[in-house]
Design goal:
binds zinc ion; 3-stranded antiparallel β-sheet
C-alpha cells in the first residue's frame, strides 16, 4: 500500500464576492462608456495596467462627453475568485555532463523545460521519429523511453517544492 499521507489537497478558499457595480451613462443609461486614463507598464506581469483615471468620461451611445453613474449589481456567486496557489517545481535532468537544475512555477512549465531538453538532444541521441509535431508530454516520454531502451544515462525528475539551497 502506498503512503498517501504526504499528499495534501490544497485548501479551497472562497473569497467573499465583492459588491459589483455597473458604470452607466447618466444621460442615456448605456454601459458603453469609457474614461480617460493612463496605462502603466507592469514589468512583473508583462501587461499594461490601469494607472490614473481622470474625470473625463465619454458615452459611445450619446457620442459625447457625459457624466457616469454607478449602478449596483447583484453579487456574482457563479464564479468566486479562485485561490492562487503559489507552486514551485524543481526539475533535475541527469545527463552525461552532469545534472541540470531548473525551477518552474507550474507543472506544465516544468514539463516544458524537460521537453526543451529532449528536443535539443533528440537528433544527437538518435531518437526515432521527429519531435516536431509532438506535445511536450509525448516528447519527454519518447525521449526518455529511448534512453531506457538504449541504456542511456539520461533521466529526469520533476519535484514539487522549493529549490533546496
Ligand atoms: Zn449616453
Amino acid at each position: 500500500m502506498s503512503d498517501q499521507s504526504t499528499v495534501s489537497a490544497p485548501e479551497p478558499t472562497i473569497a467573499p464576492a465583492p459588491s459589483r457595480v455597473a458604470m452607466v451613462c447618466a444621460s442615456c443609461g448605456s454601459t458603453d462608456v469609457m474614461r480617460d486614463a493612463w496605462a502603466v507598464w507592469n514589468t512583473e506581469t508583462q501587461e499594461w495596467e490601469l494607472g490614473n483615471v481622470f474625470d473625463d468620461a465619454r458615452c459611445e451611445n450619446c457620442d459625447r462627453e457625459v457624466r457616469i453613474d454607478e449602478e449596483p449589481l447583484p453579487p456574482d456567486t457563479a464564479s468566486p475568485a479562485l485561490p492562487v496557489k503559489p507552486a514551485r517545481f524543481t526539475v533535475h535532468i541527469s545527463h552525461k555532463q552532469g545534472i541540470d537544475l531548473y525551477a518552474a512555477k507550474t507543472a506544465e512549465g516544468a514539463l516544458g523545460i524537460v521537453a526543451g531538453f529532449a528536443r535539443e538532444w533528440w537528433e544527437h541521441e538518435q531518437v526515432p521519429g521527429s519531435p516536431k509535431n509532438l506535445s511536450d508530454a509525448d516528447v519527454v516520454k519518447q525521449y526518455f523511453d529511448h534512453q531506457e531502451t538504449t541504456r542511456g544515462e539520461e533521466c529526469y525528475e520533476i519535484q514539487e517544492g522549493e529549490l533546496a539551497e
